[in-house]
Amino acid sequence: MSSEIAIPSHDAPASKAAVVLPRGLTWFRSLPAACSPWSDDGSCDIAFMSYEMLSIYSLCFRTSDAGEGFFISFRSQFKAHEDNINSVAFPVSFHKSPVDRVFITCGNDRFIRLWSFNSNTYEMGKQTCLRQDVIPNTCAACNFSGRLCVLAASLTGHVVVWEPTNRHVGSSLLVKKLEKDVSTSCTWMPPDCDSTILLGVVGFKSGDVCSFSYGCSDISSDASLNVLFRIHAHDFDICSLVPVQFFEDGICYLATSGRDSYVKVWSMTDAKCKYTNRFRFHQKGSGNPQESTVQCKAWISLAATGESSSSPPSTPRLLAFDPKGGFYTINSIEKPKLCESPSSSQHHSSVVFSLLAVPQSPKLFVSFGMDSQIIVWKCEHNDWHTLRPVASHVCMSSKISSISQGFGACSPLAVGLSEGCVLLLRNVAPPAPNSPISMTRLSPLPPSGNAIGITALAWHPDPQFENLLAIGSSKGHVDVVDVTRPQKRGRTFNLLEGCVYRVVWGPRLFNASKEEGEEIVTEDSSRLFVYAICKGSVFLLLSSNKPLVNLGSMFTTLLTHSSDVKLADIAFRQLGEESTYSWLIGLGSVNGAVNLFGLSRRKESIIPLSRVFIHKKCINSMAWSRHPDKYLLAVGSNHPFITIIDATDSAMQESPMETPTQLTNCLATLEGHGNRITGLDWSPHDHDLVLSGSFDCTATVWRVGLGTSAPIASYRNHFSRIFACAWSSNLPDFVFTGEEFGYLVGWHPSAQDAKAPPSSRKHRQPGPLIPTNELDEVQVVFDEKPQEPILTISEKQNRFDASSSKKLSLLPSLFTTPSATSCSIPVLTNAPPIRIQSRFSIVIDFVSFIKGISIPVDRIMPEFDLLHASSCGEGRRRLIQFVENEALRHFSATSSGANRQSRLDAYLSLLLWLGRADVVAESCVETQHMPFWLMWALELMLKGSTSRSNIGCLVEGDSVKTDIEADDFLQHKVLQLRDVCNEYNRAATLLVSAGRTAYAVRLLLSRGRAKEALLLFRLRLSPSANPTLLLDCLHLLAERLSHTGLPNSALAFLAAGQFDRAADSVRSAVSSSDPPLDHIVSLWTSSFILPDDELIDFKLAYYCVIYATNMTIEDERKQFLIQWKAVLREGSISEYLLNCAAFLLLTEWSGVVTLPKQQLAQIARDRQPSLDETFCVTNVVVDFGVACLTDASAPLEKSLETLREYHPTTHTTLLERLTLKKERSSIPFAFTKICTIIQK
């Protein structure tokens, strides 16, 4: 029988989970779990709460190939309340009344909800919301005379009775306050056969127990609920309240357990204790934050055995777990007896928080332990002293932060948790009878007062050492754990004082381990070592009792770009004997670059191979494929896409190149996720499949191939961000994904309906988070002072209007250029033959503006004058005019709107920055706007001098005052505006009025106001006198605008002198899937920024050839190539490649070929692999150009063979064109030799 249960969806394909290991139930709750009655088909539902989430599992008895037996399978999970769930309960049937498949929950959001089974899942049928001071903390339900009665008790001592299905009483609710204490547990007691009155019991945090009667005749009257007795049953919280028939008198008794370690039995007739026993309990103090919640109090869980009063007195009536996880039976005569479970590894090793008796079952019981286990027990042949575990399930005790699957077929799955533990899971497969998941818990970290999470895991790849597991923690611990040996938690650890983001096994590098006297982790000569990524560097673990070796400085000497030195990830791939290198090393940087290195076999030296710069954000995950013949590296970053780098050619080259190859293309780009990529893993069974996890709450399986890469399966039922993923080592069609909330999911890619991830930054589950049916309103009846109940959840309303609460920008018109206002189109009469869209043309204009090249005045933007001061005074006049216009815009907006005061402040501040104190004084009188800070500013500016309205007089002197006399009044007012009111612009205006503009600029910089600081600098300070301050303004502005897109990011980088970053921002504005014309525009713009960059020059010609190949009319193709050649430098790579393209793609062509001086062969490796016709033809053109320069025809022959195989018609046309040119003797001398090779 298949255990996969589909979660229904409304508008999106469903995701199916085969195995779900949930977050464990909420600790120290009296009713955290519930169980439905055993059905005729041999199953029941188990529901338990985990904070605001509810997990529902099915306990089944089935027969399979492995035999017959019980097993637990996942049914569904959902968010039951907007806040934490406090209790869950299935109704208990009294007088053999039929019970519908429903359950009740209550939560901190003040709701009590009724959930009904419908179409293989549970949906909310009815709900009621209590008033604000009544928060239900526990609940119980029963079916009495065909009526569903819900009992709830609150944090303030209120008792709530609700009959959601009783039509005679309407939709009423009874609320009555019994105690001024927090209720912890409640239950309904079984009534007499002829009784119409229910007995309810509520337990409180103080240890008191209160019993009351409820008359079902009239719920609208508070007289229906009468208190029977109150007793002080325990010294601490009530853990369990269980109705039980204990003696032969046939009377129902109440069994209670408290955190004082006592179990007691009370008579419901005289409220006297009939039985008592105390379990021994001693809790030692611990520094582990995960154990601090025990509070040195016991927790005892109880369940009734269901034995009737006619059974012998020695028959156990209660089952109990002591505070250490011991299982006991309790009768009315003797002390509790410890159950002698048969030899089995399934048992609890610590506190059990809930023990459930499955109603109407063959004596089945379910226990939930602190050790993250759910165990099902069965009493066979009435032998209560040898309860046998028949099924079990594993839970996660905290958030999942890392996953690692061993390489062997039987290797365990290691799961790192945020509490500092590692779970080793075996047999994690779709549930079946007699095949439980086994779990081993490791605590490899030392005790600490702070929470320490396991953030990185890696199994040793050698089967000889498959028991070694490398770990890294959030506090910098790095170690190797032998999972077959006991862990010594008190020993010394290697600390890096930072979060460890990755641990991997790799070979010896830089001869760093050849130190005498070192204790090596493994003993073989070809041993592997543990490398860790922490604090932007790579560290090597040589010994468990020696400090880690920092290899960051050694890698830095091998990097060709200084911006790559801050490292984020590392990955190793062992090569075969046929390769020059023994290992490939992938090194990811924070800036998004990936550097590939080879470990030489002979000299054991590290050789730089290539640098791939596609990602522009931090690298999060890298994984090498397990393909025997291909060396593919999957790379994920903070971008929502994955790149596949093919390093096969680099690994197989016989001699290393002089300089590493610079690449901006890859084998494939996997696009579809909506947020950053956090985990990658290749399939060990099908080497073309890669698994990815993302912060968009989805996981996807991709099939990677040349020109055929695409998603094939996507799992969308995670509730939170995915932190880790792994492929099963023994099941080809089974993967694992772990999310932040603590759910570990195993799913079959072939069973998923969705193929691709949804295009959203954070995917929400199909349908609402709280599945709702049609809701009924509930009327509430209180016995206290009437108070209007809250019946519905109203939408959140802002306390203030957005227009009045949001800080007003002083310069709203600066850097607000739309990202795209037009489209690039081809214009064959132009040179170059394109009309560039505005966001790129603005960048080109600014480059010309910086270089002093004249451009039309109407194309000079205010940002140009702000970012770059021209030598003439015209630019300064334009900037001042712009500031005046900005001030007038603020003033014109004061006639209406809620921001009048802020608009006037902005208007007057800009005038003071311009030195117009007299105008400000007149405006204050006219507008009747005279705030205190403005009066101080006017006094400071007018004291001793008149306003300076002349443009030339605005700039303060070149000599900067370093020693300024103390001015306590000014300092006090500036600090008041800055720190108390957060009015940085006003504080800066005060400093400007006092003649301290440099301090005002520094104040604005310290608060991140980059454009205001730069404007103030341009207006009042001299660049020659303050060069450092100007650079600070430009660099801060560049960082602020770096993620705003074109043209703003490129303009800021250019002004700060960061030309490489400016070119990168221009090129990153176009994705790999965009049409060739967009790439041409981007590269043409980049060539203005970096005119001598050979890679940009090559890529520009490359995409021009692709676009020309797509043209079907030869005259247009000819005109396109001619117009491009007219604007390219003579002797450049781009001009040479366009000549090669014209020669191969045009029937008639004549011209002079100038060979470039640059090395084209190495640059030409940066091409997009594809089997598309245009790319195949372009590759022939490029390889033709390389062959003419180097006489190396092997790449050209390979390209021609690919073209002939996949596009034979185009191949034939190309050969016919060359034959015709040979007959006409129109082949240039430089092309003659290679053309002969092609024709052969």
Strand content: 25-35%
What is the count of helical runs?
Answer: 25
Q: Strand order of the main beta sheet, please?
A: 9-13-14-15-16-61
How helical, in percent, are the residues? Answer: 10-25%
User: Pairing-aware structural class of the strands and helices?
Assistant: alpha+beta
Number of strands: 63
CA radius of gyration is 38 Å
- Ranges where pLDDT stays below 50 over 5 or more residues in a row are 1-12, 285-295, 515-525, 773-805, 944-953, 957-966
- Average pLDDT confidence is 83
For the termini, the CA-CA separation is: 64 Å
Characterize the main sheet.
6 strands, mixed
Shape: globular
Question: How would you characterize the overall build of this protein?
Answer:
- WD repeats lie at residues 78-125, 670-704.
- GO terms for molecular function: mRNA 3'-UTR binding.
- This protein is α+β, with helices and mostly antiparallel strands and 1240 residues long.
- Among the domains are: 80-232, YVTN repeat-like/Quinoprotein amine dehydrogenase (Methylamine Dehydrogenase, Chain H); 672-758; 837-942 and 976-1059, no CATH class; 1104-1239, no CATH class.
- 23% of the residues lie in helices and 29% in strands.
- It is built from 25 helices and 63 strands.
- The strands form 16 sheets. It has a 6-stranded mixed β-sheet, with no helix packed on it. Strands 45-46-47-48-52 form a 5-stranded mixed β-sheet.
- Helix 12 (997-1006) runs antiparallel to helix 13.
- The two termini are 64 Å apart.
